[in-house]
Write a structure and sequence with these properties.
Structural class: alpha/beta
Number of strands: 9
Number of helices: 7
Largest sheet: 7 strands, mixed
Strand content: 15-25%
């Protein structure tokens, strides 16, 4: 496994973003692990997170895009942090854009904050994690209603590698097939499990035999073939 992926896994654990136990997800599924990007709360954490995203986006999509779109709410700081990091690492100014949950009717009116989308813009969507693809189902029409843009792809931090809404292929693969743009992640849950299983990290075992068995059962039910 690449060094940066090992570092990112440790980073998620250190920030208490990746947890193991018993969780109910937005999709309604019961999961033995949970990833919450809302737990990145300090300037140093957000700076480092933005750099991981910027490197992954650059690796997958190069410089061939203009806007990072982060869906409300968690995508807002992600798009801001990654835009700053992209400028610092690669010397290209990328605009950030996010949506509001409610349309603003005074001052900076509309459903968007940050940069307005313009015809011809090339957009990369940035999210924390995609479990079932439901979030993109909500985000895609919002983006397309604003301007005639080209969506270059999606970048999430963790690929949960489970079936999407149709229950056949992974959420990321389903997004690619349904919307026609690639979907990628900084790291996959398989890589996380392989790296942390019975491996002490700062004196603690995060994935022991019990958690590993629960993860295996989860993927027997929801894992993408």
């Amino acid at each position: 496994m690449e060094q940066y992926k090992q570092e990112f896994i440790e980073f998620m654990v250190d920030c208490r973003v990746l947890k193991f136990g018993d969780f109910t997800l937005k999709s309604g599924r019961k999961s033995p692990f949970f990833m919450n990007a809302g737990a990145y709360v300090t300037g140093g954490q957000l700076k480092k997170l933005g750099e991981y995203y910027a490197k992954a986006i650059h690796d997958k999509y190069g410089d061939d895009f203009d806007v990072l779109f982060g869906p409300a709410y968690k995508g807002i700081p992600l798009s801001v942090a990654a835009s700053i990091a992209y400028s610092e690492l690669y010397g290209k100014e990328i605009r950030y854009c996010s949506n509001r949950k409610e349309v603003k009717d005074h001052g900076d009116v509309g459903i968007l904050l940050g940069s307005k989308l313009q015809d011809g813009d090339r957009v990369v969507i940035i999210e924390d994690v995609t479990t079932s693809g439901k979030s993109i189902e909500e985000t895609f029409p919002i983006i397309k209603a604003q301007a005639n843009v080209e969506i270059k792809g999606l970048m999430v931090s963790l690929n949960r590698e489970e079936v999407g809404l149709d229950g056949k292929v992974s959420a990321l693969q389903e997004i690619q097939e349904k919307y026609g743009f690639p979907a990628n992640a900084i790291v996959s849950m398989t890589e996380v499990t392989e790296y942390l299983y019975n491996r002490p990290y700062k004196g603690e075992i995060y994935i022991d035999d019990t958690i590993k068995s629960a993860i295996d059962r989860y993927y027997q039910e929801y894992g993408a073939k």
